[in-house]
Amino acid sequence: MDHSTLLSHCRQAWETFDELTASIEKHIDDYISENDISDEREEAFIVEVFAGCARYHRVMKVVIDAFYKSDGRNFTQSERPTLTVLSYLLFYRLDELGIENFRAFVDSYEPNKSYRYLKFVTNEDSVRSWMCDCWCSVFADNYVTTVLVEPLLSWLPELSYVVEDLRCRVDSRRQAEKLKSTRKKTTVTVPEPFNITQLRGRRVPTPQEIPRLKPHKLVPQTTYKLPVEDIQLDKQRELNRRNAEMALMEANRVQFRCANAVRSEKSRSRLQQIIAEDESKLDFDRSKARPLPPNISNTIPIRLNAAAILREGQLFRKQEDETLKHLYLLESGYRDESEFNRWQSEMKRRDALDTDAEAERRRIEGQLALEEAILAKRTLTDENKRRVSEWKSDQAKLMDEYAKEQMEKDREIRILVEEITMGHKNAKEAKVRVREKKRMIVEAVESESRELLKAALEAEEERMTIQLQLIAEIKAMESALKIRVPKKVDLTETGGYGLLSEMSISELRERLKMLYFEQEEDEARKREEILSDKIKKDEYIIDTLDIISRHRSENNRKAAERNRQRSSSVDKRKVVSDPRVTELQNRLQQRKSERLRLNAVGSKHTMKTSSRSHELIKQKNELEQSRWAELEAAQERTDHGLPHQHSSSSVKVL
Q1: Which residues contact 57 (CB under 8 A, 6 or more apart)?
Q2: Please, what's the b/e burial string for 331-358 (b: 16 or more CB within 10 A of its CB; e: otherwise)?
Q3: pLDDT band at residue 84 using 50, 70 and 90 as cut-offs
Q4: Which of 374, 400, 391, 170 is nearest to 284 (CA)?
Q5: CA 222, chain centre distance (Å)
Q6: What is the mean predicted confidence (pLDDT) over 139-144?
Q7: What is the DSSP string of 316-379?
Q8: What gap in Å lies between CA 643 and CA 637, rounded to an integer?
């Protein structure tokens, strides 16, 4: 299967995928079965590309959306899946594919569209600026730098050659189409047959029998097929490679599981500190009532404006009118409301006493319910502590058994990791040498291009200096002053246009002066009227302020009198003795004493359990230190190259 067919399959698989109706595995399996893809390598490539597009679609979506907004306005939305597949191969699979395979995938797409998209994506300034910022908003900064930005920047020199090749192909196609459209249509010469005498028909001779050769032997089919031994060896290599990859993945997955069995000393101390802080904040005996707000005794003087003064004066005038009406009614025989007010105040006082007694009863009931809830919670906590202590003892036994099994597994995994690590070391060194060689070639090309660019810039600067000198000379010639003869003007003459209101400049000036004097007289008259109105208004406000001050002083006097009467008549309220309240108080005192007794017993039990927990923590720390020591020794053996023989044998099998 060629590159164009692989790209088409990847595009169709991603285009028909809907995450709401089917999962990733089910969709790709159905697609492979429908299209009858039997080759294992092609199937593995399509599955990996589809899974990568589904996993990293947010990375490609940022770049493709920006491309559609800027350079891809003529692209249709049906081409988005193809751009997604090319973006995934560029960002994540370029190291594995190589530049030649990636060029083949790009060539299978339309050259013009491939050129425009690759030119947009391989712009170094865009990669370092807005692409990096958008990716950092989705993924971690370290991941974006090491996985996306740095590999793409390292491949930019090779990708620039691919973009340049696409540009040449697009330009050549455009020139060919332009020449084809401008070519003139020429008349075709139609030949005429010669007038020649026709010959008589000749007699056809009898054909001779052609001698036949003996049939040759066919080429055997084994010439075009590989030997059976080579095919079996290839299958065995592929099987060994898959088994090694699965073993490596499993080793990486469970390599350091034993290190997370027990928390560190710092974590435990921090956890105990947090628990102690939370328990110190618990205060069940604290009063729940909020403190009283501060009483502001000093009144702050408020400066009133004219509108407020007039409103308050109008209010006091209405009060005076109502007072006069009430006095007229009393004179005519109406009764006073003082007796009814005394009866009403007495009834309010009785209701207040009953309300206070009910509130005291409810308060004591609330405290009693709180004490009972504390005792119930304490009982439940003791039961939970007992269960936890039993569970911890069982867990310690299981942890010891698990640690022994894990040590055996770790030894086997370390041996396998050492063999695989040595097998990958040679491949990495060869890749580093190839990359260094490419880097030297790119540096040589860049130095040559910089020299050419410098020469072109110097030539352009010389041309610009000559042009600037010519422009300065032209401006100097244009800025030469021209001598003008002043024209004499008579201000007493009219324009002579024959209009009814035509006048000279002198007459116009006189008329304007007269208008100015009239306007000043009108403004002075208006100022006098405004000043007189303001004086009248100030006098009215002063009278209103006198009325307000009298009423305020009278109101203050009446308020002080009412306060003196209330303080002399109303005694301190006392809660009426109620047998229910007394009984509740006794029950509350019993619950408090029981809670204090349980707190004293619980503190002694806590000291005993803390000593046992310290012993368990010490044993876990010793076990953890021994495991880390073994892991460090295995890593040192791997660094010094002790298991070289095992790794070489594994590489040969692969």
Answers
A1: 84
A2: eeeeeeeeeeeeeeeeeeeeeeeeeebe
A3: confident
A4: 374
A5: 62
A6: 84
A7: HHHHHHHHHHHHHHHHTTPPPSHHHHHHHHHHHHHHHHHHHHHHHHHHHHHHHHHHHHHHHHHH
A8: 8
Tokens of 134: 């958008």
Give the span between the Cα atoms of 631 and 410, in whole angstroms. Answer: 9
Amino acid residing at 205: P
Phi, psi of 123, rounded to the nearest 5 degrees = -75, 120
pLDDT band at 574 (very low <50, low <70, confident <90, very high): very low
The answer to whether 170 and 112 have CB atoms below 8 angstroms apart is: yes
Q: Which amino acid is at 446?
A: E
**Nearest-CA neighbor of 318 among 14, 551, 642, 522?**
551
Cα gap 371→590, rounded to integer Å: 10
Only one residue has tokens 């592929």, namely 238
Question: Could you write out the DSSP letters of every residue in 123-156?
Answer: -HHHIIIIIHHHHHHHS-HHHIIIIIIHHHHHTH
Token readout for 453 is 């660019």
573 has a pLDDT exceeding 60? no
Please, what is the average pLDDT of the chain? Answer: 78
Nearest Cα neighbor of 420 from 256, 259, 255 is 255
Residue 654 has pLDDT above 50, yes or no: no
Q: Residues 457-465: contacts with CB within 8 Å, 24+ apart?
A: none
pLDDT digits (tens, 9 = 90+) for 38-48: 778 888 888 88
Whole-number Å distance between alpha carbons of 202 and 206: 13
Model's pTM, two decimal places?
Answer: 0.32
Nearest to 406 by CA among 244, 569, 259, 212: 259
Confidence at residue 236, expressed as pLDDT on a 0 to 100 scale: 93
User: What are the distances in angstroms from CA 547 to CA 301, 319, 327?
Assistant: 18, 12, 20
**CB-CB contact of 405 with 261 (8 Å):** no
Residue partners of 86: CB distance under 8 A and separation at least 6: 7, 105, 106, 109, 114, 117
Assess whether pLDDT exceeds 70 at residue 139: yes
Instruction: Tell me the two tokens of residue 361.
Output: 């009863």
Convert 35-74 to b/e letters by CB count within 10 Å (16 or more is b). Answer: eebeeeeeeebbbbbbebbbebbebbebbbebbbeeebee
Return phi, psi of residue 409, to 5°: -65, -40
For residue 150 the two structure tokens come to: 């740095």
Q: Enter the tokens of residue 314.
A: 């109008």
Q: What DSSP state is assigned to residue 503?
A: -
- Structure letter (DSSP) for residue 261: S
